């Protein structure tokens, strides 16, 4: 993200003093990097992973003569996005096959015993 204190400020980097996220001051070269070109602030992936995806956060870039504030959300990682949700579907197929076999056997016995009774009359 490139930040300027004002649209005409060419000296923004000289006045840069820090970054806060949600009111917490970040550590330069641990949580973020900054480079010249107005002030190019990059939050590091390790820091973003700790924020958690989906929540709204407030980024404040601090200068000796003011501050700039914006809101952002962290997108889920590709792994989180592609992973299947837990649905509780642990169906245990052996159990269901056994129940089907017992049900079919009971139905077959009922049909056969009904035929024997009607055939013996």
Describe the protein's architecture and organization.
By secondary structure, the chain is an alpha+beta fold. The protein folds into two domains: 2-78, Immunoglobulin-like, CATH 2.60.40; 91-119. 36% of the residues lie in helices and 30% in strands. The chain is built from four helices and seven strands; from the N terminus they run βαββββαββαα. It has helices at residues 12-15, 45-51, 78-82, 93-119, and strands at 2-3, 16-21, 24-25, 32-36, 39-43, 56-63, 66-73. A four-stranded antiparallel sheet has the order 3-2-6-7. It has a three-stranded antiparallel sheet with strand order 1-5-4. The radius of gyration is 33 Å and the shape is rod-shaped. The mean pLDDT is 82.
């Amino acid at each position: 993200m490139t930040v300027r204190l004002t649209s005409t400020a060419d000296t923004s980097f000289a006045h840069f003093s820090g970054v806060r996220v949600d009111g917490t001051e970040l550590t330069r070269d641990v949580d973020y990097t900054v480079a010249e070109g107005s002030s190019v602030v990059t939050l590091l992936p390790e820091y973003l992973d700790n924020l958690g995806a989906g929540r709204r956060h407030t980024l404040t870039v601090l200068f000796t003569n003011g501050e700039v504030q914006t809101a952002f959300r962290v997108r889920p990682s590709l792994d989180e996005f592609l992973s299947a949700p837990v649905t509780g579907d642990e169906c245990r197929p052996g159990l269901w096959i056994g129940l089907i076999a017992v049900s079919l056997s009971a139905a077959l016995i009922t049909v056969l015993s009904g035929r024997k009774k009607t055939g013996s009359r």
